[in-house]
């Protein structure tokens, strides 16, 4: 695929200077510097969903690449070095449409990829998990061949193999539920669990806990009140549910990412529109204890359009969050937000525009900087390209 150069601007949206903060929480900082950005893509659209460090100073992004009129969609992986120069690219096709939702670099090298493909007769989606080597070559794959739509959203290594969280409609009622699948190290199924109620649930993120159990998150429908709540599920190491919790107000919420905390408990981010008088969403961040009880929650946004938090990462003195933000001119842009341990904004940076740009992932680098991955809309051809931007560590205050 051809490397594209597009005009791209990162700018400071807001800076909250913290004047009296205990040293255990967060030193005063200024936003980081943009070190570089690159866009990547072919003649048509890229829909990229996750980025991981490659262990050699570079990054691997995963998603999908489409042909003309968004047809002939194939899974697309790209490995770039620390300066954004392409090392390798790979595409994969299992059916009419093949997409990656997540990629995770394994401790021993190589990657595990989660996603789905539409079967060749176009009737439904099958969940797909792929084990790759360091160059993106397939070592094995696993397909959950249900009779309705099934999607693998995230796969993580566990003792003796892997566990995948996803969404399934392959049940008697054809009702959407969450699923967990345990695989051996060679990709053979060990067990499969469906988690949900007749109302319909989806889980798109997960973390592995010190006791070997799992916490998965997403959303639950409340069909009586016609709303959706954030949903958190705690299971044991066999995927048996220990407890569930729901969160939200009187409209719609969804968790899009979860991380476990060293002190116990969880930090979750996503989107909510229960705190405003419009249909547009705001960023949503929730901290809970180990039992899922809320310690605090925060919303961030503006009145001009949809904002949502796609991913949060834990820092020694707070959090960093990435997603989509809107400007007063209703331009969708990538959004990087730095937060204290209490969820207060330190700075918020918008980049991209003037159209529909999104950030899907942020990773913290060994030097303390950040890498953001998202999509950049090209107004000239009407398609989206992969965008990767690298930032320095936070700058000290004052500069």
Radius of gyration: 20 Å
How large is the share of residues in beta strands? over 45%
CATH architecture descriptor text of the domain at 202-354 = 6 Propeller
Approximately how much helix is present in the residues? under 10%
Provide the residue-averaged pLDDT.
86
Q: Please, what is the CATH homologous superfamily of the domain at 202-354?
A: TolB, C-terminal domain
Strand numbers in spatial order across the main sheet: 1-4-31-30-29
Distance, first to last CA: 40 Å
Which descriptor suits the 3D outline? globular
Characterize this entry briefly:
The protein is mainly beta. 0% of the residues lie in helices and 58% in strands. It contains no helices and 32 strands.
How is the secondary structure organized here?
Layout: E1 3-4, E2 10-15, E3 29-30, E4 34-40, E5 46-53, E6 59-65, E7 74-80, E8 86-92, E9 97-105, E10 111-118, E11 125-132, E12 138-144, E13 150-158, E14 161-168, E15 177-184, E16 189-195, E17 201-208, E18 214-222, E19 227-235, E20 241-247, E21 253-260, E22 266-272, E23 282-288, E24 294-300, E25 308-315, E26 318-326, E27 332-339, E28 345-351, E29 358-364, E30 370-378, E31 383-391, E32 395-396
Antiparallel strand pairs: 1-4, 2-28, 3-32, 4-31, 5-6, 6-7, 7-8, 9-10, 10-11, 11-12, 13-14, 14-15, 15-16, 17-18, 18-19, 19-20, 21-22, 22-23, 23-24, 25-26, 26-27, 27-28, 29-30, 30-31
């Amino acid at each position: 695929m051809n490397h594209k150069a597009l005009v791209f601007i990162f700018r400071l949206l807001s800076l909250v200077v913290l004047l009296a903060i205990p040293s255990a929480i967060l030193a005063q900082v200024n936003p980081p510097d943009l070190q570089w950005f690159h866009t990547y893509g072919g003649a048509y659209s890229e829909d990229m969903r996750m980025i991981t460090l490659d262990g050699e100073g570079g990054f691997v992004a995963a998603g999908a690449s489409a042909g003309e009129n968004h047809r002939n969609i194939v899974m697309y992986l790209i490995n770039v070095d620390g300066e954004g120069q392409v090392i390798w690219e790979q595409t994969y096709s299992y059916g009419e449409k093949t997409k990656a939702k997540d990629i995770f670099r394994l401790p021993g090298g190589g990657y595990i990829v989660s996603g789905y493909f539409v079967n060749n007769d176009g009737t439904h989606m099958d969940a797909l998990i792929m084990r790759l080597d360091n160059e993106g070559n397939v070592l094995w794959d696993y397909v959950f061949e249900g009779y309705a739509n099934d999607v693998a959203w995230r796969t993580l290594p566990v003792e003796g193999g892997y566990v995948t969280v996803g969404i399934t409609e392959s049940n008697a009622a054809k009702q959407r539920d969450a699923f967990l699948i345990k695989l051996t190290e060679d990709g053979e199924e060990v067990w499969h669990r469906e988690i949900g109620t007749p109302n319909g649930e989806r889980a798109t993120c997960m973390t592995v806990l010190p006791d070997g159990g799992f916490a998965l998150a997403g959303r639950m429908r409340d069909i009586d009140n016609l709303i959706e709540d954030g949903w958190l599920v705690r299971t044991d190491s066999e995927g048996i549910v220990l407890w569930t919790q729901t969160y939200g107000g009187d409209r719609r919420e969804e968790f899009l990412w979860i991380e476990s905390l060293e002190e116990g408990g969880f930090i979750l981010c996503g989107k909510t529109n229960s705190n405003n008088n419009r249909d547009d969403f705001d960023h949503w961040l929730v901290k809970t204890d180990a039992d899922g009880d809320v310690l605090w929650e925060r919303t961030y946004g503006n009145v001009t359009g949809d904002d949502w938090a796609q991913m949060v990462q834990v820092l020694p003195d707070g959090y960093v969050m990435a997603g989509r933000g809107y400007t007063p001119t209703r331009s969708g842009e990538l959004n990087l937000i730095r937060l204290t341990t209490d969820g207060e904004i330190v700075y918020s940076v918008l980049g991209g525009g003037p159209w529909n740009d999104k950030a899907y992932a942020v990773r913290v680098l060994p030097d303390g900087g950040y890498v953001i991955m998202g999509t950049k809309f090209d107004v000239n051809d009407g398609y989206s390209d992969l965008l990767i931007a690298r930032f320095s560590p936070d700058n000290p205050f004052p500069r």
